[in-house]
Amino acid sequence: MRSATAATSARGLTRALGDWHGDGPAYLALARATAALVAQAKVPLGSRLPAERELATSLNLSRTTVSAAYSALRRHGYLISKRGAGSWTALPAGSLGAFGSIGVRPAGGLDRTAELDGIGAVDTIDLTLAASGAGAAASAIAAAAAHASEELPRYLQTPGYESFGLPQLREAIADRYERRGLPTSPDQILVTSGAQQAIDLVLQAFVRPGERVVVESPTYPRALDAVLAHAARPIAIDLDQAGWDAEVLDTFAATLRQAAPSVSYVIADFHNPTGALMSSDMRAAAAAAVHRAGSYLVVDETLADLALDPAAVRSPLPPVAAFDRAGRVISVGSLGKTVWGGLRIGWIRADARLVQRLAAIRSRIDMSGPLLEQLIGVRLLGSYDVILSGRRAELLEGRDVLVDNLRKALPHWDFRVPAGGLSLWVELDRPVSSALTLSAAHLGVRLAPGSRFGSDSRFERRLRVPFTLPPLVLAEATSRLASAVGQVREGVVVDLADLIV
Ligand SMILES: Cc1ncc(COP(=O)(O)O)c(C=O)c1O
C-alpha cells in the first residue's frame, strides 16, 4: 500500500460531508456519505481520516456512531486502519494506483491483464491526478541526485538554512526567466516547496478573511482550495476552452473595478484543466488591467514549459510578467510537471521587496527548503532543455493516444486538442460527470468530476481527462470509460456508497 501523505481534518470532512443524513441508522448514512466522497475523489485516496473522537465532536455525534461508520467503511474496503496509527481512505476495487501505479486485479469483470503485459496488470487507474512519473527524466534525476550527494559535504559546515532558497538555484531560475526574455535577478526569486506552497504564500501575504480573490472558472482545484482555506471568497471569471478573449478581458477588468480584490489568480499557459494558451495581447492587457486597478496578478506557470505541438514549442510566448512594468505580476513556477513532482521544487518570481516579505511569511511555517533537493534542482536545470524534450515527447504521445482512443470509443464526447499541457477538458453529451465518476470508480478508473474545477453546475457536463499515464494505460482507461458511459446511459445506478449495507 502507498504510504499515506495528506490528512483530512475533522472540520474538512464535516464540511465535505454537508448534509449527509439519510434513511436508516446514522452510522450507515455516515459511512455511505463518506464512501461517496472517496469514490468521487472529493476526499483523496490514501488520505488519513480524522480520529473517531475528533470527527464525533465535529459532527456532534456519539463516538460509537462514528466508530460503527468507520467499521462499515473498513469492511467494504473504503478504509484501511493500522492499530494505533490511524485510518486511510482506499477503494474497494483493490490497491491504488496513484502515480500511474497501476495495482493488480482487473476490476468490475474487465479482464485485460494480457493486453497490458510489460507494464503489469491494471487494477485502479488514477485519472484524478494530472501528473506523471519521472519517465524519461528518471536517469537525469538519479544522476543529479548522485552529483548532489557528492557536493553535500561542502555544505555540511554551514547551518544549511537558506530562507530564500539556495543561491545557485535562485540564479538558475532567474537565468531561465532571462532566457524567456524577462530580465530577472536572483533576489527576485523565492524557492518554495512546489507551486502549491507558492500560491498559498501569496494568498497569506495578500488576502484577509472575507476578501475576494478573482479566479478563472474552471481552474486548478487546489488553488481554489487554498483560496477557501484562507476564508477568502473566490469570484469566478468564466472561461471556455478557447481561453481568454476580449469578452473575458472586459469581464476581468470590470470585476477588478467592482470587487477590488488584492489578488487574482490565472493560469496563462496550457491552462489546467482547459489547456488554453493566453495570447500575447491578452497577457499585455491583463497585466495593464491589474496595474490600473492597483491589484496583483498571480500567474501560475507550472505548465508553461509544456508546449507539445511543434509550432507552440518553436514560438513560446513571453511570460505575463514581461508585460508588467509596475511589479504587479507575481509568477509562480515549479519543476513538478516538467521534471518530477517528488522533488518539491517550486518558486515565486516577484519584486525583490515582495520576495523579502514572502520569505518572512514562509519562515513561520518552514525555515528553509531541504538543501539536498535544491542541489539536485540546480543540476537538473543545467540539463533542463534535454529533460523537457523527453517530457514533451512522452506527453505528446499520451495526448495523441488518448485523443485517438476517445474519438473511437466515445465519439459523442467533444474536446479541443490542446497545444500543450497535461489534459483534455472534455464536454460530455449529457450532464452526467458525477454519475460517470461513480460508475468509472466501480470499473477501476478514478476520475475528478467536472465540478471539482469550479463551483459552476455547468461543469456537470465536463470531465478532465489527463494524458499523463503510459499509452497502454490510457487505452485501457478509455475502454473502461466507455463501459462506464454505457452503464450511465442504461441507467445502471452504480453508487459505490450503496454497496455499503
Ligand atoms: C496549475 C497547477 N499549479 C500548481 C500545481 C502544484 O504544483 P506543485 O507540485 O509544484 O506544488 C499543479 C499540480 O497539479 C498545477 O496543475
Q: What is the CA–CA distance across the termini?
A: 26 Å
Helix/strand/pairing class, anyone? alpha/beta
Strands across the major sheet, in which order?
5-11-10-9-8-6-7
Query: Which overall shape is indicated by the principal axes computed on the Cα atoms?
Result: globular
Number of strands: 14
| Average predicted confidence as pLDDT | 88
Low-confidence stretches: 1-5, 94-121
Number of helices: 16
Order of helices and strands: HHEHHEEEHHEHEHEHEHEHEEHHHEHEEH
Largest sheet: 7 strands, mixed
What is the radius of gyration computed over CA atoms, rounded to a whole number of angstroms?
Answer: 23 Å
| Helical content (DSSP H or I, runs of 4+) | 40-55%
Which small-molecule ligands are present, each listed once?
pyridoxal-5'-phosphate
Give the percentage of residues in beta strands.
Answer: 5-15%
Description:
The chain has 16 helices and 14 strands. It has 501 residues and is α/β, with parallel strands linked by helices. The strands form four sheets. A seven-stranded mixed β-sheet has the order 5-11-10-9-8-6-7, with helices on both faces. Strands 1-3-2 form a three-stranded antiparallel β-sheet. Strands 4-13 form a two-stranded parallel sheet. Pyridoxal-5'-phosphate binds next to α7. Pyridoxal-5'-phosphate (PLP) binds next to α7.
